[in-house]
Write a structure and sequence with these properties.
Layout lengths: L5 H16 L4 H16 L2 E8 L9 E9 L10 E5 L2 H8 L4 E4 L1 H7 L3 H4 L6 E9 L2 E10 L6 H15 L17 H6 L1
Antiparallel strand pairs: 1-2, 1-6, 2-3, 4-5, 5-6
Helix pairs in contact: 1-2, 1-6, 2-6
């Protein structure tokens, strides 16, 4: 499938937003987002990870659970993992910033499960934090087979993440790991 170029990105995103306005289920919405992801990023792997960290988890850990996966056979929905504080977690969870890494060496440095990714030929990633206030309640993740992203692809993935955010619930009991304030309190402030 040929990927969208910079000039077609606007119509692709506008079409998605129109489609999502009539979509009633999260499953259907995320399938639509996934279709556009393939049009923007081409050969890639896509997932959404919910932050399911609670006040009972160790202070230096973030617990994640997969809400959506484009390759569910190898990365199943509801699969869970723990992450410690690293430049990756600090970028997404402390700073609320998009993380872009390019080149298989960069992936190997930032992802302890890179050996599991290797068979897919993945060489680059765009991770977008889904935020409520300062709380990263989920991450929108696209791993590409090309060594470098084009500027319009990064923008397109970021826009897809924003469009998907309304369909991604915050986990019950989610605690803002670094202040101990539960999500419900941070939203009332």
């Amino acid at each position: 499938m040929p990927t969208a170029n910079a000039s077609t990105l606007t119509s692709l995103i506008a079409n998605l937003l129109d489609t999502l306005a009539d979509t009633r289920s999260a499953e259907d919405a995320l399938l639509e987002v996934d279709l556009r992801r393939r049009q923007i990023a081409g050969e890639s792997v896509f997932s959404i990870q919910q932050n399911v960290t609670t006040g009972r988890d160790p202070a230096d850990e973030i617990r994640l659970r997969r809400l959506y996966s484009s390759v569910a056979d190898d990365y199943p929905v509801n699969g869970a993992k723990r992450k410690t504080l690293t430049p990756w977690t600090e970028c997404l969870f402390l700073q609320g910033r998009v993380f872009v890494a390019e080149g298989s060496g960069a992936l190997a440095r930032h992802f302890d499960d890179f050996d599991q990714m290797r068979p897919y030929g993945l060489q680059s990633v765009i991770n977008v934090p889904l935020l409520q206030g300062n709380l990263c309640y989920a991450t929108f993740n696209v791993f590409g087979t090309r060594p470098r992203w084009r500027q319009h692809e990064v923008l397109g993935i970021r826009l897809l993440a924003l469009a998907a955010a309304r369909w991604v619930p915050a986990a019950p009991g989610l605690a803002y790991r670094f202040t101990g304030v539960p999500l419900t309190h941070s939203m009332e402030a």
